[in-house]
Every structure is written in structure tokens, then in C-alpha cells.
């Protein structure tokens, strides 16, 4: 904000209010710290006694995610609105804006918790990372739309007021975070000094959460107040930072121009093969937008950059458009090939905001060529209204209006049902574990699909572990698919056995064209009736004929796991290297029941240490 606007904001409290400004901010920091400690204690209560079985013990409100999530989002961000607004906004405006921001934060947290299912809702903080990140961005932008307008007593403030308020707040936030970090570094240094002389009281105190959490936010509030009182310090740091960033615009402009110029010769395949090409291009466009604003500053004639930077601003403003076009093209290709996902929907929203910047900044860069006007003046209106658009898009994304999970589930299921993706390639795990209640409902519906492949895949997903790859159940091999070659050459397996291939498919279904098995007839139990032993690469199954004419898997033999002693069982059978030998351990008859000895997994023998 300008000097006049700054004075207007401070005069809103009056002389007595200015004196109380410091204590008010310290009280806000203390309340924030105590509130966050309360939530932390509720989530951690009893973890020291937790045996790791079942959910960890917690107390209210951590036991109620629908209360905990909104409270956490509110305690983290709403005090920042008060710290930034007290002393600058009129009390009525601050009260209304604080209430609106608090309700918005609570509703964002409530929706984020309510849309999650039992499979996606984990322990505290319960909130998904995107809602925390985008809530912070929306709150910062919205606050710096409200504050300048209130200070100038206008619905739409002047662009210099918007720029001054937002840039000063960014510097103030960075300095306050740095001050808080330095405070804790000094405390730990002091604790180390006391410890070397045998006093560990300070080190013990720093580990206490009831002390650490409230003190952290009180110190942060103190830093906000100190930097606000020393307004000249903030302006000096901001001037240096903007100057450095504006010269970085030259570097980014050259890189972006070189990238775009090289595309006709290299093509876009390399960019798409990265898997995150659209995100990279959007990040480059965002960097150009930030650096353009750093060079343009408040647009006043006395703050205009040198001629070389003014030229760079024009070129960079034009370059945003091809970057956004490339990003949209890449997103469109991905969505066409693989459908919508929450990440792609969020990226599309970012591309929409980028397109708004590209149109306005491109117009600002080119308009002086055909009409009179101040340098890049249309940029100001674009920045203001795109900020409004950004807040609206964020609120829509993290509300039922444009919920990315719901839209993704609807698109992915539609692709499956119309055959755009085959049932064996479909990601059923996404529906169960990554898309909340919308995915759970879609998965339940797919279990009733008339397509057996879809229904089997959906049913398998309902019982799969979280990180287990879910695929439709493999079709049961038929008797015609089983390939077993009898040994010796010319021998034949009993027709009763080969006639039961279909019934025995669970045991010998792995014997196929790619991995054929070898079989031989051996009397294993000395009853003058041969058993059929079917050998694969690493295991062999012995099948015995029951009196009713059915064959069943009687015993399984496995090759040792030690590479030194392992053997290709199928190959050994085919070459005749097979014989019987008495068991090392005899069977036991206990209470008239025969018990067979079962050996554990064969391990590699321990080699003696080489002689020194």
C-alpha cells in the first residue's frame, strides 16, 4: 500500500489502539499456539501406551475427523488473517472478513473430510495436502484483495495499493518465519551450553510440547509486530528482493525463448515422455508471471526498470502464451489417453488461471504498438481480476462443485464401461484407496457389472491390501491349456489322470506352452500302484489315485532355495535323474493317526570362514 494508505489503516485504531497493537498480536499468537497444542495433544493422547494394535488412542476432537479437520485448518490460518489485519483494517471490516474467512476455511476442511472414505481417511490431521496448500494460497490472495480496498475505502483499490500490500506481506512473512527459526536455533544453542555444565533443565523444557508449540506462535506474532513497526526495514528488504528478482527475469526469458525456439527441431515427444511435462511448462509460465510482476512493481514511473528489463518484460509477457498452449495440449493428450485424475484436474485449473494471465499480459505487451498508453498498463487490471478468478477456482475445486475425485471417478468408470480401457488394465485400486467415497460407490456398482471381467476385478479390489496391485481374477486354465510331457519318451500317463486335468487345474494350471512340465510314474509308498509325479522348474507334485477313481495332490517336493544346491526339476526328470530314497525322519503314528514330517525351507549351508 502507499504511504497515504498505510497511514489511513493505522489511523483506524486511533492512538490507544496503536498502543495496544503489540499486546493484541501477542494474544493472537498465544491463542493460536494453545489451540494447536490442544489439537496436537488430542491426537497424541495415549500414544505412549499404544501397543500398535488397532487405531491409536485419541481424545476429542481427534476422535471426530469432521470436527478436527475444520478446527485444524481454522487454527492454522485464521490467526494469520487477524495478525495481518489488526491495525490495518477498520474493526468492522476486520470482523466481517475474519468471519467470512473462518467459515470458508471450516467448510473447505469439512468437505475434504466428508468426501473421504474409511480407506482414504487416515489419522490426524485427516486433511489431504492439496486442501492445506491451496487454502493458504486462496486466503493470502483474498486477504490482499480485501485489505487495500478497505484502506482506500473503495471496492476496487488502485493497483499500487494491491502491489504494496501483497509484496510487503510476503517479505514480512519470510522475515517472521526466519526470526522464529533463529529463535529456536539460539534456544537449542543455549540448551547445549547449559548441558555441558551439567544443567539440562532447558533441554528438557524444549522437548515439552506444552511449551514448544505456544512459544513458537507467540514468537512468530512478535516478529510480525516488530517488522510491522519498522516499516522502513520491510520496504528496504523488499526493494532489494524485487531488484534481484527483476534481473533474474532476463535469465528466465532467455531460457523460455530458447526452449520454445528449439521445439520445431526437437519435437514434443521428449517433453511428453517425462510424464510431468505439462506441470513443468506450467511452472515455467508461473515463474515468468512472478518475475514480470517483480520487474513491473507498482507501475509508477519512478519505479520503472531499465530499458533492457522493460524489453524483457514485453518478451516474457508474450512467451507465456505458447507455454500455456503447450501445457494445455499436453494435458489434453494425457486426458484423451488415460482419462481424468485429480492431479490432471488441478493442473487444468492452473492452466485456466495461466491462460487468463497469458491473454492479459500478452495484450499489455503488444497494445502499445497500436495505441497510446502507459507502459504495460493493462497488466494491472489482468492481475487484479485473475487474482479473483484464482480464489474462485480454488473454492470450486475443493468443494462439491468441482471435486477432482468425483469428476475423476466418473470419467474413469465411463472409460471402462465404453471400452476405452480394458478391464485387465483398469486401476481398481484408485477407486478403493485414492478417490474417497465417490470411488467406493463406483467400485460397489462395478461389482454388479454384467461384464464378468469388470465385476471380478472390482470384487478383487474390495479385499486387496492397499499396496497390492489389483487385477481381475485370471481365467481358470482349461484341460486343453495344460501341457505335461511324460517321461521316459513314449510313456503314457493314465487316462484317468489326463481326463481330470480340468479338475486338477488349480495344481497343474501352471504347466502351459510357455512353461511345460514333465511327469513320470513312480511307486512312492510301496503299494504296487504308481503315483504320478509332475515336475516344473522348481517344484514337483505327487498325485495319488483314490479308491473312487479321483486323483488328488498327495505331496509336494521343492528344490532347495540355495543356488548351490538348486536343481531344474523338470530338466532332471526328462533326463532320467530321479529315484526314491528312504526318508530321513520316519512317520509317527499318534493315537492311531499317521503324522508326516514336514521339513522347513532348505537354507544354504554355512561356509566356514577362510583361513587367515
Briefly summarize what is shown.
The protein contains 21 helices and seven strands. The protein has helices at residues 3-11, 14-44, 65-85, 91-114, 129-151, 159-196, 201-206, 209-229, 231-266, 269-273, 277-296, 307-338, 342-366, 378-397, 404-417, 428-434, 436-446, 452-463, 495-498, 505-508, 569-574; strands spanning 484-486, 517-522, 531-535, 539-545, 551-558, 588-590, 593-595.
Characterization of the model:
The chain has helices spanning 3-11, 14-44, 65-85, 91-114, 129-151, 159-196, 201-206, 209-229, 231-266, 269-273, 277-296, 307-338, 342-366, 378-397, 404-417, 428-434, 436-446, 452-463, 495-498, 505-508, 569-574; strands spanning 484-486, 517-522, 531-535, 539-545, 551-558, 588-590, 593-595. The chain is mainly alpha-helical and 612 residues long. It folds into 4 domains: 1-229, no CATH class; 239-400, no CATH class; 404-463, no CATH class; 479-595, no CATH class. The strands form 2 sheets. A 5-stranded mixed beta sheet has the order 1-2-3-4-5. A two-stranded antiparallel ribbon has the order 6-7. Helix 3 (65-85) runs parallel beside helix 5, helix 11 runs antiparallel to helix 12 (307-338) and helix 13 packs across helix 15 (404-417).
Amino acid at each position: 500500500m502507499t504511504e497515504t494508505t498505510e497511514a489511513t489503516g493505522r489511523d483506524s485504531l486511533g492512538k490507544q489502539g496503536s498502543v495496544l497493537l503489540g499486546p493484541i498480536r501477542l494474544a493472537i499468537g498465544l491463542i493460536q499456539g494453545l489451540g494447536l497444542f490442544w489439537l496436537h495433544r488430542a491426537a497424541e493422547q495415549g500414544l505412549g501406551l499404544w501397543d500398535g494394535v488397532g487405531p491409536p488412542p485419541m481424545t476429542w476432537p481427534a476422535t471426530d475427523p469432521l470436527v478436527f479437520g475444520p478446527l485444524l485448518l481454522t487454527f492454522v490460518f485464521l490467526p494469520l488473517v487477524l495478525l495481518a489485519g489488526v491495525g490495518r483494517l477498520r474493526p468492522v471490516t476486520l470482523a466481517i472478513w475474519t468471519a467470512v474467512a473462518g467459515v470458508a476455511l471450516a467448510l473447505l476442511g469439512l468437505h475434504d473430510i466428508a468426501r473421504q472414505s474409511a480407506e482414504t481417511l487416515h489419522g490426524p490431521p485427516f486433511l489431504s495436502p492439496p486442501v492445506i496448500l491451496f487454502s493458504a494460497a486462496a486466503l493470502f490472495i483474498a486477504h490482499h484483495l480485501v485489505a487495500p480496498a478497505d484502506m482506500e475505502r473503495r471496492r476496487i483499490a488502485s493497483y499500487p495499493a494491491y502491489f504494496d500490500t501483497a509484496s510487503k506481506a510476503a517479505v514480512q512473512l519470510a522475515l517472521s518465519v526466519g526470526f522464529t527459526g533463529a529463535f529456536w536455533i539460539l534456544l537449542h544453542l543455549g540448551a547445549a551450553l547449559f548441558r555441558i555444565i551439567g544443567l539440562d533443565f532447558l533441554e528438557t523444557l524444549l522437548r515439552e510440547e506444552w511449551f514448544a508449540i505456544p512459544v513458537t506462535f507467540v514468537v512468530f506474532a512478535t516478529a510480525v509486530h516488530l517488522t510491522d513497526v519498522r516499516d522502513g526495514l520491510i520496504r528496504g528488504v523488499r526493494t532489494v528482493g524485487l531488484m534481484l528478482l527483476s534481473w533474474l527475469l532476463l535469465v528466465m526469458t532467455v531460457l523460455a525463448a530458447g526452449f520454445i525456439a528449439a521445439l520445431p527441431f526437437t519435437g514434443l515427444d521428449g517433453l511428453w515422455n517425462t510424464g510431468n511435462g505439462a506441470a513443468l511448462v506450467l511452472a515455467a509460465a508461473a515463474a515468468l508471471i512472478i518475475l514480470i510482476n517483480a520487474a513491473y512493481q507498482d507501475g509508477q514511473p519512478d519505479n520503472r526498470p531499465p530499458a533492457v528489463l522493460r524489453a524483457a518484460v514485453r518478451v516474457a509477457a508474450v512467451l507465456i502464451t505458447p507455454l500455456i498452449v503447450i501445457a494445455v495440449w499436453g494435458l489434453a493428450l494425457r486426458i484423451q489417453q488415460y482419462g481424468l485424475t485429480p492431479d490432471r484436474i488441478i493442473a487444468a485449473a492452473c492452466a485456466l488461471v495461466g491462460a487468463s494471465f497469458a491473454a492479459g499480459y500478452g495484450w499489455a505487451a503488444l497494445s502499445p504498438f497500436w495505441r497510446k498508453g502507459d507502459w504495460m498498463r493493462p497488466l494491472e487490471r489482468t492481475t487484479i481480476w485473475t487474482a479473483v478468478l484464482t480464489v474462485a477456482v480454488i473454492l470450486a475445486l475443493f468443494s462439491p462443485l468441482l471435486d477432482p475425485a468425483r469428476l475423476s471417478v466418473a470419467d474413469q468408470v465411463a472409460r471402462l464401461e465404453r471400452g476405452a480401457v480394458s478391464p485387465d488394465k483398469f486401476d481398481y485400486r484408485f477407486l478403493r484407496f485414492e478417490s474417497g467415497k465417490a470411488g467406493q460407490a463406483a467400485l460397489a456398482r462395478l461389482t454388479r457389472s454384467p461384464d464378468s471381467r469388470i465385476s471380478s476385478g472390482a470384487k478383487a479390489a474390495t479385499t486387496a491390501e492397499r499396496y497390492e496391485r489389483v487385477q481381475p481374477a485370471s481365467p481358470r486354465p482349461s484341460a486343453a491349456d495344460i501341457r505335461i510331457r511324460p517321461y521316459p519318451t513314449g510313456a503314457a500317463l493314465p487316462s484317468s489322470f489326463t481326463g481330470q486335468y480340468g479338475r486338477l487345474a488349480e495344481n497343474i494350471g501352471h504347466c502351459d506352452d510357455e512353461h511345460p512340465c514333465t511327469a513320470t510314474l513312480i511307486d512312492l509308498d510301496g503299494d504296487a500302484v504308481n503315483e504320478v509325479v509332475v515336475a516344473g522348474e522348481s517344484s514337483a507334485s505327487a498325485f495319488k489315485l483314490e479308491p473312487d477313481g479321483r486323483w488328488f495332490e498327495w505331496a509336494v517336493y521343492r528344490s532347495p532355495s540355495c543356488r548351490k544346491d538348486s536343481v531344474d526339476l523338470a530338466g532332471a526328470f526328462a533326463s532320467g535323474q530321479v529315484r526314491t530314497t528312504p526318508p530321513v525322519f520316519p512317520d509317527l503314528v499318534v493315537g492311531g493317526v499317521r503324522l508326516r514330517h514336514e521339513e522347513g525351507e532348505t537354507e544354504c549351508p554355512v561356509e566356514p570362514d577362510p583361513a587367515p
